Amino acid sequence: MPRIRELDAVTIGQIAAGEIVERPSSVVKELVENAIDAGARRVTVNVERGGLQLIEVLDDGIGIAPQELPLALRRHSTSKLGNAGELESVATLGFRGEGLASIAAVARTEIISREPGAPVGARVGAHAEWIGEIEPAPAPPGTGVRVAGLFENVPVRREFLRSESAEFNRISSWLSTFALAYPDRTFVLRHDGKEVWVMPAAADERERLAMVFGRKSAQAMLELDAEAARMLDGRLRGYISPPGDDRPDRRMQVLFVNGRLLRSALLAGAWTSGYATYAMTGRHPYGVIFLDLPPEHVDPNVHPTKSDVRLRYGTHVFEVVRRTIAATLGGDARKRFARETQPPNLALSFAPPDAADGLRVLAQLDRTFILAADGEAILLIDQHAAHERIAYEAIVAAAKCGAASEPLLVPQIVELDPVRSGALDRTLDALREGGMEIEPFGERTYRLVATPFGYGARTFDVAGFIDDLSDEPKQRDVRERVWASLACHSVTVAGEALEREEMASLLERLQTCENPMHCPHGRPTMVRLGPQEIARMFKRV
Ligand code: ADP
Ligand code: MG
């Protein structure tokens, strides 16, 4: 008896399908992508019992000629790729010719299709390795694929599925997210005979955003800065959440590369890095980014469901995405600051309260917050956060022009444990660029010889600084992390009494910052209670 033998066709089919059809939502993905590739304007998805009983996708696209129906179901048959050379420049969502074959390998599948010009349509069924006869059938123009009894012949796959409602939710969430990239198409989703949602072709992208993210979020989302997005061979567009409006996970960070909905670790990093100093640790902004690159710069052929891609010039793309996000947030922060501290020029005055124009510092609260008011609103400023932002931007500016430090008259000697000393070694260059000069001075001992300009006589808490660094999200640029931490350890802390003039000067300097609204760790620097908020507290509105 030979031990090694060839697998039978049915088993081979199931193994191949395993990579592509993981769960009901994978079937929906393959079929909806086919519909889009076929130029459909309207796509209807009917689901029964979470997709386990039935998934049906109907479209009004170009259809399939009757004699080609069996071919569409065969593995490695596609109309989207002529030869290996074209793999370099795939412009369709599909190209491997495996979608329908993989679905048929694990479910009872039927295609009914009619080309728009043809008088009548045709149907063909398939299951496992069997493909049925072509039969004429009445049908509207376009294609309908019915997939019944998913995984009935692969019981082990069924066991890995979640409940019907959880599987349905995956379908709904994938489809609605996918629809973001196709705002001019109509999508309809039904479950167990009931219409769950309809996304009619939208007049513009914001309208589609509102359907997916909700109207309020969609209105608040910032459109990416077109100027910053220019340094790319392709196109970068998108909408991102404003600072302060974020979520506990990354699920709503939607990314399309050449129309394909993806997860990309690289670009998730660019997202985090772009929001550095705008989002709090552990919180995630949301939004949608559309990246269109020349097809030959993208290799979608690295993942069976094409849910990740390899990018040529990935580092450059990372940098453009990061910078575009940062520029968008910066522009918005300056606009908001100007709006919230009207009149635009912070005319600080210490006039008595009845004088009512310009922003006035009224008091310090709890030695932590500054209370100020303009003609109509109350402003609460977190003194530490505000000062941190000012110091951070001063450090960044000084680092950029390379003139940053002030020598100490008496160097400070610090001794550290091995872990902290290793961590400090890794930050010495970034610290030096930020104006903090620390030299190794024997085993695990360091000499602090110069501090950032204007740092004052405060002693630098090296150990505290290093501990803070290790709490920071890893994906952030190391220099940004070091500078943010440096800023944090160099400024007024909560609990410190401030003179009125000190408070006024703090606000004045905050006004000149790139991002006056947030400290470098992403916490807000100020809260504004405008007439509407105040009226609401008194139940007037
Ligand atoms: P791929 O999408 O990678 O080409 P599929 O197995 O998903 O592979 O589909 C095989 C072929 O069947 C496609 O290339 C296309 O020509 C045809 N096809 C599939 N679905 C549709 C559809 N909804 N409308 C028109 N043609 C379709
Ligand atoms: Mg396909």
List the helices and strands and how they pair.
Layout: H1 9-20, H2 24-37, E1 42-48, E2 54-59, H3 69-73, H4 99-106, E3 108-114, E4 121-127, E5 130-131, E6 135-137, E7 142-148, H5 155-159, H6 164-178, E8 186-191, E9 194-199, H7 205-213, H8 215-220, E10 222-223, E11 235-240, E12 253-257, E13 260-262, H9 265-274, E14 287-292, E15 298-299, E16 310-311, H10 314-340, E17 360-365, E18 369-373, E19 378-382, H11 383-401, E20 405-415, H12 418-433, E21 437-440, E22 445-452, H13 462-471, H14 478-488, H15 500-511, E23 526-529, H16 531-537
Parallel strand pairs: 1-8, 12-14
Antiparallel strand pairs: 1-2, 2-7, 3-4, 3-7, 4-5, 4-6, 8-9, 10-11, 11-14, 12-13, 15-16, 17-18, 18-19, 19-23, 20-22, 21-22
Helix pairs in contact: 1-4, 2-6, 9-10, 11-14, 11-15, 13-14
This protein binds adenosine-5'-diphosphate (ADP) and magnesium ion.
Characterise this structure.
The chain is an alpha+beta fold and 541 residues long. Helix content is 34%, strand content 22%. It contains 16 helices and 23 strands. It has helices spanning 9-20, 24-37, 69-73, 99-106, 155-159, 164-178, 205-213, 215-220, 265-274, 314-340, 383-401, 418-433, 462-471, 478-488, 500-511, 531-537; strands at 42-48, 54-59, 108-114, 121-127, 130-131, 135-137, 142-148, 186-191, 194-199, 222-223, 235-240, 253-257, 260-262, 287-292, 298-299, 310-311, 360-365, 369-373, 378-382, 405-415, 437-440, 445-452, 526-529. The strands form 5 sheets. Strands 1, 2, 3, 4, 5, 6, 7, 8 and 9 form a 9-stranded mixed β-sheet that branches. The protein has a 5-stranded mixed β-sheet with strand order 10-11-14-12-13. It has a 4-stranded antiparallel β-sheet with strand order 17-18-19-23. A hairpin with a 4-residue loop joins strand 18 (369-373) and strand 19. Helix 9 (265-274) runs parallel beside helix 10. It is elongated and about 90 Å long. The relative contact order is 0.09. Residues 30, 33-34, 94, 99 line the site of magnesium ion.
